[in-house]
Design brief:
By secondary structure, the chain is an alpha+beta fold. The protein contains twelve helices and nine strands. The chain has helices at 23-40, 47-58, 63-72, 80-86, 103-144, 150-194, 205-211, 232-239, 241-258, 281-296, 327-343, 354-357, and strands at residues 4-5, 11-12, 222-229, 263-268, 271-277, 300-301, 308-310, 314-320, 349-352. The longest helix is centred in the middle third of the chain and has 45 residues, at 150-194. The chain is elongated and about 100 Å long.
Length: 359
């Protein structure tokens, strides 16, 4: 009985199979199994689908393979929609539905999957070409030892020409692999840029949303702060947006300098969010208040005239994330505390634990 692929993508060993397969044989076998899987489920062989099936078959005990096994149990065919639903979990855990990715991130992720598929195909062909060239070269060497047989000379010449063409193909495949790696790096840079605020160089709101994971009953504590520059509109109105931009950068620098081991982000406009990990609410409050005092203690001057800009301050609301709480819930509570700090006179931090803030 020949090897075949079950609905879950697990390889079934051939009866009587003995010995250990070479890397080239294993690669060819995986390629055949991928083809059989695609044919069995009537799927196209585009790079995204190919890469997805490659991951399923290459890690038959992995979380993605187990998820696929559950979907195709009972002989059900895997659909393109099923692949799309699992696409965000390729290479990672399969479980609760991840948040919907923005269009730009979705495009980057899809392109990365395409690159992975092409890279695997290139590596497979490269390995086979190398094995082929080695075999031909050995045969040519053996034939060249036979003397006084004119047809052998012609065969040797043809074989050596085939070796040369194979080596040239390998070189082209090397170039293609390097180009794919360069494209991957460019995509990773594009994703990083999409999560960074160009003015302050801080991570942006998208980065916060991707970084946040609801805390469990055990594990490191998470505290979230929302900070807002006091009377920022007046700064823009009196001195212009260029000065306002300098103020934003100054606040970003102060928060980053004090909250070194935590995620400081520009949430939007004159708002900043800080995600504290592994510290208590009191410790997070002490850090945040230190940053607030640092900003409030400086006297800013206009660069062009050295005229005083006046005091710059910010207010903040800080809360402890409860077990399983979504980011939106924690942000809402921190925001309410922020407005309470502003109502109490600004230039202060209001902090509260989850149960206190929810009363």
């Amino acid at each position: 009985m020949a090897s075949h692929v079950s609905g879950s993508g697990r390889q079934q060993p051939a009866d009587g199979a003995v010995g250990r397969a070479t890397p080239a044989e294993m690669s060819r076998d995986l390629y055949r199994r991928i083809g059989a899987f695609l044919d069995n489920h009537r799927l196209g062989a585009d790079p995204v689908t190919y890469s997805f099936v490659y991951r399923v078959l290459n890690e038959p005990q992995g979380p993605l393979a187990r998820a696929v096994a559950g979907l195709v149990d009972g002989g059900v065919r895997l659909t393109v929609a099923d692949i799309a639903s699992l696409g965000g979990s390729v290479g990672g855990s399969v479980g609760g539905a991840p948040p919907a990715a923005p269009a730009g991130d979705e495009w980057v992720a899809r392109a990365q999957l395409q690159i992975e598929g092409v890279e695997h195909i290139v590596r497979t062909v490269q390995a086979e070409a190398n094995a082929f060239a080695t075999t031909i070269a050995a045969g040519a060497d053996a034939l060249s030892e036979v003397r006084d047989v004119s047809p052998v000379t012609e065969i040797v010449a043809v074989a050596r020409a085939m070796v040369a063409r194979t080596r040239a193909a390998e070189a082209r495949l090397d170039d293609a692999t390097r180009e794919a790696q360069v494209l991957r790096c460019a995509l990773e840079e594009a994703r990083a840029d999409a999560q960074r605020d160009p003015l302050t160089a801080l991570p942006n709101r998208r980065a916060l949303e991707e970084h946040y994971r609801p805390p469990g009953e055990t594990g490191p504590a998470l505290c979230l702060a929302m900070c807002d520059i006091d009377h920022f509109k007046q700064v823009n109105d009196r001195f212009g947006h260029a000065v306002g931009d300098r103020v934003l950068r100054a606040i970003a620098t102060a928060l980053s300098a004090v909250c070194v081991d935590h995620l400081v982000t520009r949430y939007g406009g004159e708002e900043f969010a800080v995600l504290f990990t592994g510290v208590s609410l009191a410790e997070a409050e002490a850090l945040l208040d230190r940053a607030r005092a640092s900003v409030a203690g400086k006297r800013y001057l206009l660069r062009e005239s050295d005229a005083p800009l006046g005091a710059i301050t910010f207010s903040a609301g800080l809360t402890l994330a409860g077990a399983g709480e979504a980011l939106g819930t924690v942000l809402g509570r921190a925001d309410r505390l922020l407005y309470a700090a502003k109502a109490a006179g600004r230039n202060r931090v209001h902090a509260a634990a989850t149960e206190i803030a929810n009363r």
